[in-house]
Amino acid sequence: MATRAQIYREILREYDALRTRKAAELRERKESLYERFPRLAEIEEELSLLGISAARTALGSPEGIERAVQELKGRQHKLAAERLEIFEAAGISPRVLEMEYDCEKCHDTGYIEESPCVCLKRRVMDRLYDQSNVRDVIRLENFDTFDLRLFSGEAVPEEGASPKENAQRNLKTAMAFAEDFTGGNLLLYGGTGRGKTFLCNCIAKDVLERGKNVLYLTAGQMFKQLEEMRFGQSEDEERTEWDEELLDVDLLIIDDLGTEFSTVFTASELFRIINDRKLRKKPVVISTNLEIPALMDQYSDRVMSRLIGEYTVMKFFGEDMRMKKKYQK
Ligand SMILES: [Zn+2]
Prior knowledge:
329 residues; alpha/beta; Rossmann fold; 2 domains; five-stranded parallel beta sheet; two-stranded antiparallel sheet; 7 strands; binds zinc ion
């Protein structure tokens, strides 16, 4: 998983490679053109020599300089006109001798003076989409495709509502969360296939489209990475960057909490992440298949008091939608 700093470095290397390729293409274009029209090569040579001879003359008297400049300009004009004639006669645009850029605004550097160009922002955005791990899935799973008809309208007495009413409520909460996005947190819980992951994907897409960055990890992936960072061979810099990403990304979605093998390490890391992000006012969405008491067993009281006290808890119940869809096909 690349951090934001790594993404930037990678993209700037791509710009470098792009400019190198464009320069090579220009050289090739010139070479083949000069082969067809040797006079064009001579003109280019003469033009570059003119500059040198002008500099030499300029060492003379003031009147001499003035005259030399006039002569130089005249000669340059003549050569340029001759070149244009050759191009026109051959029906070729003089632009073949110019550098081509993918982005005319920043000349493929990614920056216009100090500020990032639109093309750089787009590349970063693109990478963040990839990075969020949800690029493909959110095409299918988003607020537009959330289908309330899949949920049963039959009331579940012990829940005091039907799965459809419940899903409607959860959908509303999720939409409000994505729109408002001012530091609230969500805890989604309920059995497998009740729509939690689907709703997480909806939130991810909506938030990404608002130009925020999202990191979507299963708890298993997240703890594995943290363990590698802590106990593996990774460099300090890499570790700090990854940590910063986890703590500072606009929205962190931790899917499937509770399925990982939990240890003292995972419990304390979870607390650290939740706590640190809370201090930074950065939202977290957590989904879990476990009921609250089972989560309490697995994690420390301090984790759970945070989760229950400061997260909007959303329950998911009803039929297993994955099974339902499978058998409907
Ligand atoms: Zn640009």
